[in-house]
Amino acid sequence: MAVNDGSSIKEALFYERLEENQVRCLLCRHRCTIKDNKRGLCGVRENRGGKLFTLVYGLPCAYHVDPIEKKPLFHFFPGSKAFSIATVGCNFRCLNCQNYEISQMPRDEKRILGEYMAPEEVVSMAEKTGCRSISYTYTEPTVFFEYAFDVARLAKERGLYNNFVTNGYIEEAPLMAIKPYLDGANIDLKGFSEDFYRRVCGAELSKVLEAIRLYKRLGIWIEITTLIIPGYNDDEEGLKAIASFIKDELGRETPWHVSAFYPTYRLLDAKRTAPQIIKRAMEIGKDMGLYYVYQGNVPGIGGEDTYCHNCGRAIILRTGYTVTAYNVKEGRCFFCNGEVYGVGM
Ligand code: SF4
To answer: Per the confidence metrics, is the pTM higher than 0.90?
Structure first.
């Protein structure tokens, strides 16, 4: 892995120039004001002489072929492979980040690492490895927007699909710009209190909700994920509020993934999530009338299969990230012909 040698530095999209060589980044909802020779909160966008530059263009720190179910996206070409890429950096600083070595590297270690890979190369590798889509994942795709945008546009031209795995903090203009190429997103809704978002993530809940609504309004397929941390966001009221937001504002057909936490990074004092908490969260989602509620990170308790919302039969069976039975044809339940929501179903 090479240190950034300058080949990956490119003028940023979505910023405005201010007085005294300052700039305001307009890519995410932090809208950082950045002085000359300084970087924004994500640590990968730098003001040089009154111009904003991305420091991670074409510089993935990780790339893998993953099952799409790993994102998790359960209603997006089920059983397909996703060519998954990330650069270092994130606009959140979640105390429980599972990928903190790469997401927080620019902030914690003041380093930017990666291996140069042109957009053309990413798309060719996705094709050669039989992937149906490209996932912008592991860290936060918003902060490597310029790279994601170029890869996504090229991928689309070549018949591939694109999806984001994101914390939902992108501003309206960049999302509108990438919308023609972006087919799906798994968006974290990490809790339902401003206090939780401020303390644990360094962000604002109201802005996340605005961004999620925008994804929905633009017609991008979305699935929501909530990682449940005991003592932080596992209260009944908060979980009900999330389920209610999904039902009322995104629609019952929007899948909700509830997943278990294990102690990591700066949240080593919290306990692992007990299976009964995950089961209770799933019940809350189902009682709210959501069509598709899934669990992650707890082997052996089920909660990975898809049931037809119309006839109740199991239509997609999964073991871990593998689809073992598929009873959906052209977006319809094989048994009752009811609609099965998603992309490429
Ligand atoms: S993308 Fe980075 S620099 Fe831009 S507003 Fe967000 S955190 Fe700040």
So the answer is: yes
